[in-house]
Amino acid sequence: MDHKETEGTVLTSVFNVTPPMAHYNGCMTQHNMSDDHISMDNADTMRAWRLRDQPGPITTEPLEYVESAIPVPQPGEALIKVLACGVCRTDLHVSEGDLPVHVDHVTPGHETVGRVVAIGPTPSEDAFGAANHVTSHMPTIEIGDRVGVAWLRHTCGQCEFCRNGKENLCRQSLYTGWDANGGYAQYTTAPLDYVYPLESLLNGGGIRYAERTIAPLLCAGIIGYRALKRTGLLDDYDPDTSHAVRHNGRTPVLGLYGFGGSAHITAQVALALGMRVHVLTRGEDAKRLALSLGCSSANDAYDMPPELLDAAIIFAPVGVIVPPALDALRSGGVLSLAGIHMSDIPALNYEREVFHEKEIRSVESNTRQDGREFLTFAGKHQLNLDTHVYALQQAQQALIDLKSGAFAGAAVLVP
Q: Are 193 and 117 in contact (CB under 8 A)?
């Protein structure tokens, strides 16, 4: 299916902004871009959303739309003109206070597609005073490149988790749109070694994405992929030698609870790998979307699927779904919890829901390797994004609509 957009007009940005000066390796050079990338007018300010003094229910409008200074890229950072930013449920958790405030008046947004307009000096030390440990792994990013800014923006590189491929568990990790300002703005900054080059996906041959359709891949897609890996169904998968996965010698059966932005991408990954996918969700539009993508069934969130599941992923932040999801697993099945926040899980019946070596595995963020693997997969398998476009000025309404279930798929802000 083709991606679709809401009927509302996508408004142009409130301010036209002069190209900032481009910094490279400590030198100042003039950024030279055509007018379709940045237009001339005001060199100092931009429009952005930020959290008011306190988070609160999204219907009370805890975000405010303000004029603020264009950020200056620090050493090792890029200044990025935002072209599109996905609306993630984590942004809702930040806005409503489900996640504690880390930065006053933070700008949400961590599914950002943008164009690099300036680059800060080469870093000698990171923000914690340690020698920069990842400079050698930085992607080659140049001014004018389109890049993706995702959730994870810093890890220490020195702890046992970072040294063993589990940087998502680093206790010094920092996150875009929570610990630093994100993409609900006309400009944002991001560390160069945490951005993803996107030109190959945006200018690909047979498989190609638009800026607004690639934005949800940067969190909804990557986190869904991480959650799928956590089920164990990809443990023996080698993308270089096989195109389908097997589980105990047969086709794996996967259940997805909740079917929004992340789940509708994850379903397509699983289907491309030959799995049978059953969806359990409350929304009728979401059920129709699931069936249109090729899922085997789509039923209510608390129904039993038509067959036992080898694994399941819960995307909905609703703890009471955990017992029926465990009940639906085969012996030895794994339940992966994809969200950063979930309501309390009720008491479990050990014999029915936990015994027979069933497992619950949570998902904490992702590694950059997860991101690279997933975006490589997206470059080989066309993923059809069901996107609903809102102007940047409508960000708060997009979050209200997300919470109310007003759309299936994913919302995307366009400045």
A: no
